[in-house]
Each structure stands twice: as structure tokens, then as C-alpha cells.
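Per your request, structure below.
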């Protein structure tokens, strides 16, 4: 199984990266960009594995079978460093540690590979710490930065990187991956891939976690409950509550396990007060967990808003198809025969058609803008999520 197998629908990118991995002198800095679900991190890890692959035949780089490939994909290869913050930003101290690490010679592979999975989560001052290292890296060091778009990275950085642009894979390819790799039945895989809008990680969770499916269904149906301001305020509270529950469902178990492991490693007593030296380390862990929890809730809220956005996206598709059908005399509410756009929430088609008929495309676009605006506010500022989403919900009336 090749390291490229999970990069569904990325044929041109795989070809580009395969050629680079076979080169004796590949570009020293890369910028992988693409929307959520495009597989930026997976592509970066696959490329890193191909660079350090043990196969002597250049055409077989990235075999996925040798020890180097396995350890890169598992995150344990000594010559590949992967950094993706679980906090709000990558700190300047973390950036300095990366620069120092990048100076080391590779221990066994041809290259030392530095992957920054959240290059868009660095402040300008932090990014400037990396600038010199990326501009003039050691002879055997290769940098790979990942971000949603080139605009999310300082121009001084992206001008020194070779660009790799990924796209969201087709729904059919994601569904096929779930069937082949995770053993999901084809029908559930297709529904999960469509609902996740081709985001592989989210599609897997929706296919395997009934609770996640129920929370998503509740979020997508929220517009159907909005009649007045009080409904909007209740819907906003419900949205925040659902997103927080989604984030906490994974954080609570992980936090408890981390604290237990720390206490055991420090030899903490099983009862009574902790010694001061241990208390300080536990407090530091709890502070890190709080920052991670904030990032997790923010990311989950953003995903919930993306799911909500899919309702209005489907509404707009139906409204525009109705206008096209009115022009050619087709049955109202059906997509034109030439259309290739499918509904994300196909199971809600009757409700969506009624909702679409009660408003205009201009109104739907305004509602979509309101959702996108609150997404930007939540992820880029310290705005209180509940207040921002309440204001958004009122604007959706």
C-alpha cells in the first residue's frame, strides 16, 4: 500500500510530489494549501514519507511498506518533525525550537523534514522567526508548511516556498476510502461523505459515531425552527451547547488520561495533598488543557456553522434550479437535467424545497454571509461565541 493511497482525487498533486521525491535535489521549502477536508496534513506526511523512504528504486519512493514510511505515518520517525498546535496559535518559543531542530543533520534518512501543520496559526512575529530558516535552510533540511490558502501565510514566507494546491476530493472517492479502509457499508459511507462535504476525517466520524450524526442533524434542522427572536436566541444557545458537547466528549477522557499519566510518572501519592513541585506541573498541564479546550470548542463551533451553512447552500441550489426550470418549463423544485450539483442534505429535500420557495436567492446569500461573518469572528478574535451566534441567528429570521 503506497503512502499516496489516501490522497483521494489528488492525482496531479501526487504526480508532482512523486517527481520531487525522486529528485536528488528537491525544493527546500513547500507550501501546501487547500480548504478543510482537502488533506493538507495527509499530503505533507505522505510527501515526507516519500522523501525518507528506504527504497533504492526512485520510482518506488513512498512505498508505504518500509520502516521509514511506517514511522513517518505513525509520527515516530526521528528525521520528520510534525508540529500542529492544539492551542489558538503556535507560540514564538515553539517556532524557535523548530528552527533549532531544523539545524540537526538527518540521523538515517536523506533528508530532515520539518512539517508545520498550522502555518496559518502563527502571528507575524512568530512567522518572522521561521523566515531565515526557510530562506536559507541547512543542506539536508526540507520545510513543508500547511495552510488553508496562500493568503493565510505572510508574503515573505510564501514567496520562498513552492506552492502545492489541493482540492476537496469527490464524494465518491471519500466514500470508497471509507469502505476500503474502515469497513463502512457503502450506503452509510456515501451518506457520511456527502454530509461531511468530502472531509475524510469528519466523514469517518459520522459513519462510525451515531451521536455525531444526531448532533449534526440537530444543527442542520435549526433553520426550520426559526420563527421569531426568541426562537433565534434558543437556537443559538442550542448550537453552542451542541458544539461544546461535541468538543467535550473527546476532551474529557483525554484530559483525565493525561493527568493520570503525569501523576504516575511523577510518583504522586494516591491520596492526600500533592507536593508543591508536583502541583506546579499539574497546574501547567491543566492550563495547557484549558487552552486546548478553547481551540477545540472554537474548531467544533466552526464545523457546526459549516454544517448549518450547508442547509442554506442546498436552499440556494434549489432556488437557482427553480429559476432555471421556470425558464425552460421543467417541473419546479427539480434540478435541471444539465445540473451536476447534488444536495448535501438530500434527506431534507421536502423541507428544503418548502423553505426555498418561501424566500429568494438574495435572502439566502445574505444569510450565508451572516454565517461566514460569525465564523471569521469566532476563529480570529476573542468574541464571546454565544453572543456572536445569537446575533447571527436573529439575522437569519
Amino acid at each position: 500500500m503506497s503512502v499516496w493511497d489516501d490522497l483521494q482525487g489528488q492525482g496531479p498533486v501526487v504526480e508532482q510530489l512523486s517527481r520531487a521525491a525522486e529528485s536528488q535535489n528537491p525544493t527546500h521549502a513547500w507550501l501546501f494549501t487547500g480548504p478543510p477536508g482537502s488533506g493538507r496534513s495527509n499530503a505533507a506526511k505522505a510527501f515526507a514519507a516519500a522523501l525518507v523512504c528506504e527504497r533504492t528504486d526512485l520510482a518506488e519512493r513512498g512505498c508505504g511498506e518500509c520502516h521509514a514510511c511506517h514511522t513517518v505515518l505513525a509520527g515516530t520517525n526521528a528525521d520528520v518533525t510534525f508540529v500542529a498546535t492544539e492551542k489558538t496559535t503556535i507560540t514564538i518559543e515553539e517556532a524557535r525550537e523548530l528552527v533549532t531542530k531544523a539545524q540537526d543533520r538527518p540521523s538515517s534518512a536523506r533528508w530532515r523534514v520539518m512539517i508545520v501543520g498550522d502555518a496559518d496559526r502563527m502571528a507575524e512575529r512568530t512567522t518572522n522567526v521561521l523566515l531565515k530558516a526557510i530562506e536559507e535552510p541547512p543542506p539536508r533540511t526540507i520545510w513543508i508548511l500547511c495552510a488553508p490558502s496562500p493568503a493565510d501565510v505572510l508574503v515573505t514566507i510564501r514567496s520562498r516556498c513552492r506552492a502545492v494546491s489541493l482540492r476537496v476530493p469527490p464524494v465518491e472517492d471519500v466514500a470508497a476510502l471509507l469502505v476500503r479502509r474502515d469497513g463502512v457499508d457503502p450506503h452509510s459511507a456515501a451518506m457520511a461523505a456527502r454530509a461531511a462535504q468530502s472531509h475524510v476525517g469528519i466523514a469517518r466520524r459520522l459513519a462510525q459515531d451515531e451521536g455525531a450524526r444526531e448532533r449534526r442533524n440537530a444543527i442542520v434542522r435549526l433553520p426550520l425552527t426559526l420563527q421569531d427572536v426568541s426562537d433565534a436566541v434558543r437556537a443559538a444557545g442550542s448550537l453552542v451547547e451542541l458544539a461544546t458537547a461535541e468538543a467535550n466528549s473527546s476532551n474529557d477522557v483525554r484530559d483525565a488520561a493525561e493527568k493520570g499519566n503525569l501523576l504516575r510518572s511523577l510518583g504522586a501519592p494516591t491520596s492526600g495533598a500533592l507536593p508543591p513541585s508536583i502541583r506546579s506541573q499539574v497546574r501547567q498541564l491543566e492550563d495547557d488543557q484549558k487552552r486546548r479546550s478553547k481551540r477545540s470548542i472554537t474548531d467544533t463551533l466552526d464545523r457546526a456553522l459549516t454544517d448549518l451553512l450547508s442547509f442554506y447552500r442546498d436552499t440556494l441550489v434549489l432556488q437557482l434550479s427553480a429559476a432555471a426550470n421556470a425558464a425552460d418549463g421543467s417541473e419546479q423544485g427539480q434540478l435541471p437535467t444539465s445540473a451536476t450539483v447534488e444536495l448535501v442534505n438530500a434527506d431534507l429535500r421536502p423541507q428544503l424545497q418548502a423553505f426555498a420557495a418561501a424566500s429568494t436567492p438574495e435572502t439566502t446569500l445574505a444569510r450565508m454571509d451572516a454565517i461566514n461573518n460569525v465564523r471569521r469572528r469566532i476563529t480570529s478574535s476573542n468574541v464571546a461565541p454565544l453572543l456572536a451566534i445569537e446575533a447571527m441567528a436573529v439575522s437569519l429570521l
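The beta strands are 29-33, 80-83, 112-116, 141-147, 162-165.

Regards,
D.
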